[in-house]
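Researcher: Next sequence.
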Amino acid sequence: MSKQELLHDPGIRVVELDIEGMTCASCVNRVEKKLGKIDGVHASVNLPLESASVTVPAGITDQQLVDTVNAAGYKAAVRTPEPPAGAGAAEDADAHGAAQLRPRLILAALLTVPVFLISMVPAAQFPHWGWAAALLALPVVTWAAWPFHRAAAINARHLASTMDTLVSIGVAAAYLFSGWQLLADPRMTEHPGMEGMETGGLYFEVAAVVTTFLLLGRYLEANAKQKAGDALQALLHLGANDATILRHGSEQRIPAGQLQVGDVLVVRPGEKIATDGVVTDGNSAVDASLVTGESVPVEVGPGSQVTGATINTSGRLLVRATRVGSDTTLAQIARLVSQAQTGKAPIARLADRISAVFVPVVLAIAALTFVLWLLFAGPDLGSGDLRPAFTAAVAVLVIACPCALGLATPVGLLTGTGRGAQLGILIKGPQVLEDTRTVDTILLDKTGTVTTGILAVDATAAFNGFREREVLRLAGAVEAASEHPVAHAIAAAAADKTDDDGPLPAVQGFRSAPGGGVSGTVEGRHVTAGRTGWLQENGIILTNGQQQELALAEATGATAIWVAVDGAVAGIISLRDTVKEGSAAAVERLKRLGLRPVLLTGDNAAVAAQVAAAVGIAKDDVYAGVLPEGKVEAVRRLQAGGAIVAMAGDGVNDAAALAQADLGIAMGSGTDVAIEAADLTVMGNDLAQVAQAIELSRRTLATIKTNLFWAFFYNAVGIPVAALGLLNPMIAGAAMAASSVLVVANSLRLRSFGKQPAGR
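Model: Next structure:
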């Protein structure tokens, strides 16, 4: 049973663990296996976050999980929920790790430099320099290298091995072999520049240099992993620390954590909105760019929904809190991103399978290398030369350390999802990365996705001697008393386009018929506005020519409204759901990504065709007249034809289709239902963000693949080269450390995604 299937069982819960002591992919694999042996438990362990997401059935306690991890040689603790939690624990762990490594690295570097110089530079040597090298290298291979030795010992007690095993054995072997050589022949370095060093008799500098390089690599990894989580951390710290609320008619300042649903917040210009809510009073523009990724402030007024952590830019607002604490949008973002970062992409399974057998195989290769060199590399066949045999075996141990393998997937995922959160793009899980690579068709819901979803007056036609301006003004006056969206659009257009004539006049005797129209007296004239049936109900006769005008307007995709004055037809007002600015460019961008855009709408064919033409969608790729329940069938029909389908929608009525699609993309404010059903959520309303989300997902997947290539490349090429005796252990240590740093540095390039023009 998959993790997703398990979560549908009401007895199933998810426990988040913080785990200390993991160093490589072998550690990750070991912890997952140990936890997986508990009946019904499924664990996904993340190395850079030093955490595990554990799916637990009823009857299994948190303490059982902690004890299992501790018994495996690591230290576990149940993460306490402090929303928004996100990756904060991992960031603290990385900072703490770097602080612990810093003094060991400094000591190792200070002592390694003289060891290297007196061992490798004849001019720097002096009588009995070997003993000095041994003494200087001793603190390096003991105290400085202690993290490697400690981890290796813990794993050895459990009959297991990790990359630390390879490092510990390699460093210890290099130092002990050199000490044995020096004790066996004390005169070996009695004189400066003796040939003993040239033939590889002593390896104190190898042990010291390898330790220093590996400590440097670990230190850089810790710092880089902390940077990889900075994007998410910046988002999580957006929330306001305190808030001003109205209680009993007076303002009070309280910590944001004490807010309750129903509290009324006072938000002044320049202040952050402390939590999700609804504006009850005031008008302003809210900068939501840090949450939604939209650069243009959104106008809000009474009744408008606002999101916590957004910034009030102008007027004073009163906001009634609707969601607080862990229920807010920001906390929801934190949970989604954290869960995505803790999960595993299918591409990571290959690394997991390899890491499970990697270290034992490397130990066997190192032993075989030593034996073969010992048997066949001497001056005479079978005589054996211990020094080249030892050098080759140590080089194999050092170059093989699979640090980069364990970091390749999670660090790429951590950086990509963190950057996505900054851009208002939520990647629900690692599987999404694979899905974005395979989709070839994208269904776009028209209303609210391609178009604004808001009707606006497009044109006014006048008959019987009336002027267009007069028709619009009279219609606007009577429609101003109605709550219907069409009425709002006409009233707004009339107020805007006839403002030179003063405010709209008042209406007397207002009457409204649901689905029909409105009527009333304006400046002594009886005005009727609405559908054909409403005019006929009011005894108004329509000529054939006028009806043809209406048919022409509707044929172009407009919603047409009759206007009659004193029983005579005065004109027609046409309204359209306007195409969002940037939708055409976004559709073109989707095409460049190799996707076939398909328009899906409940509107009639004429409306759908007009919108499709405006944004560049082929007329054969338009599904018109589709009811909400028919959207799922549209997805299935495309899938049955062999298409891999992505679906972009903005509302609850799209949830079923989003779930049915191979890749569901929720747009807009990110309602609970939409986020639950979708794989990707873009917090803004711009279709360009959909294209950007797919681009980011694909870029993240490409980065992970590049990481895995370099991780495998170093091991695949380095091990045989080392076994053939062509690789000095010092160079091997530097190369191994460099591979880890390269993988992390490559992942950090994702932090700049979206800062340059698309496609560059």
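Model: The chain has five domains: 3-80, 91-230+343-414+703-752, 242-337, 425-450+580-683, 453-578. The chain is about 50% helix and 20% strand.
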